[in-house]
Amino acid sequence: MKKFWFFLVLILLGALIAGCTASETGTEVDETEGGGTEEQGKEDGAKEGELSGEITVWAHPFTGDQEVEGAMWKEIIASYEEQTGVKVNFEQIPWANRDQKVLTALAANNGPDVFYVIPDQMPQYADAGMLLALDPYLEGFDIDDFVDTALVSTTWKDELYGLPILQEAYTYIYNVDVIKAIGEDPEKLPATWEEFEQWAKKAKDKGYYATSFQGGGSMNGTLYPFLWQAGGDVVTDNNEVLINNEAGVEAFTFIKKMYDEGWIPADSITAMEHDAIWDSGKMLAVQGSGISVSRLLSNELFDFVIAPPMKNKEQLTYGTTGMFVAPINTDNPAAAAEFIKVMTNAENQKKFNTVTQYIPTRESAKDIFTDQKYLDQLAGYTQYALPGVIHPEGRTIMPLIQAELQAMLEGKKTPQEAADAAAEAIQSKMK
């Protein structure tokens, strides 16, 4: 069994390495011997008061201040150890090559009992049978306090494999000076595609770009928000490809219109950022999150306002979710599951996100930003924030979609042709 599992991990490791070029936009930058079977793990965790031994927890650096972050971890770990009597061995691992490190360690049966993952990792691990399903350990646990969109990325095939600790919400941030220059009101920001188009036309007429489009970056920050707002999606967990349906073509068409009309810069086909244009006050709005707000505040470039996520048929946007999971071959599944529960309770979410400045995934923990105007506003938008394509091939299909989107912007394909070609490329990756 161990040899089989090791072989399975090697296959997945190869797939992850092959797909690592399509990393996500935003935050970070994301049945063996000893452990028993999954059913045995579930039985071990079914009874309370049986926690003992020790667990190993792996996480990444989330801030530049390791002294403050280290103190935070000590406090959270102490709360768990006091509550359970289980000793925690904590190790901070770098973001670089995290997939390889985790998978290699798990294959050798000396990996962590709990580790941190992002949305494009979870379904790959879960689909390969590498993660411990947490549902059997959640009896009496307050799951309803979590933001619904935060649980999207922790669930695969109707099984919950993780609990979320942080979220983001991307939305348009507007330059107040440009708003006034085009004769609009900073207190009446565009809420729909149609309203945004009207502002974009005025911005173009006055010599401004309407927004940034980073065609060389992740689809999470380019195509996907428009696709979801149009009422579409990329692919379902049952491998049904949806990207080229009516909603998908509408999203491709809207992006093509932005490019053809000059509302986005000419280099948007391959651009990774347009910071110089934005910083110089020549752009109406950019998609941003808490990191973007912090940058604007620290540089004091200009006054800005934040709009709610836009709506076409749906009001949706992108926002990553970070979560903690346990491997199926943990030697202490009940203690691992309990750590994930304690780690993501309201009290510890407040501690973690106060230090890291991400948005808590529990509604009851969001009051940490009550006195921070912009983060408090963004915290209210996580209800609209989807974490990307939750599918084992979510990472590997991204560059395939990107290539077709770029071909469309170059004028080589129509929106329908680009969407159809993207669908065909995605289908080739489905199991």
Structure in words:
With 431 residues, the chain is of the alpha/beta class. Helix content is 40%, strand content 12%. It has helices at residues 2-18, 38-44, 66-84, 98-107, 122-127, 148-152, 176-181, 193-205, 223-229, 246-260, 275-279, 290-299, 333-343, 346-356, 373-379, 398-409, 415-427; strands at 54-59, 87-92, 114-117, 155-156, 159-160, 162-167, 171-175, 209-211, 283-288, 304-306, 317-318, 321-325, 385-386. Helix 3 links the parallel strand 1 and strand 2. Helix 1 runs antiparallel to helix 4 (98-107) and helix 9 (223-229) packs across helix 10 (246-260). The protein starts with a helix and ends with a helix.
* SSE pattern, N- to C-terminal: HHEHEHEHHEEEEHHEHHHEHEEEHHHEHH
How much helical structure, as a percent, in the residues?
40-55%
- How many strand elements? 13
Shape: globular
Biggest sheet: strands side by side, in what order?
A: 2-1-3-12-6
Q: How confident overall, as mean pLDDT?
A: 90
- Unreliable stretches, pLDDT < 50, 5 or more residues? 20-48
Beta-strand fraction estimate: 5-15%
Identify the quaternary structure here.
single chain
Task: Tell me the Rg in angstroms.
Answer: 22 Å
Q: Count every helix, treating DSSP H or I runs of 4 or more residues as helices.
A: 17
Q: Which structural class fits the helix and strand makeup?
A: alpha/beta
Characterize the biggest β-sheet.
5 strands, mixed
Helices and strands, with pairings:
Blueprint: H1 2-18, H2 38-44, E1 54-59, H3 66-84, E2 87-92, H4 98-107, E3 114-117, H5 122-127, H6 148-152, E4 155-156, E5 159-160, E6 162-167, E7 171-175, H7 176-181, H8 193-205, E8 209-211, H9 223-229, H10 246-260, H11 275-279, E9 283-288, H12 290-299, E10 304-306, E11 317-318, E12 321-325, H13 333-343, H14 346-356, H15 373-379, E13 385-386, H16 398-409, H17 415-427
Parallel strand pairs: 1-2, 1-3, 8-9, 11-13
Antiparallel strand pairs: 3-12, 4-5, 6-12, 7-9, 7-10
Helix pairs in contact: 1-4, 3-13, 3-14, 9-10, 10-17, 16-17
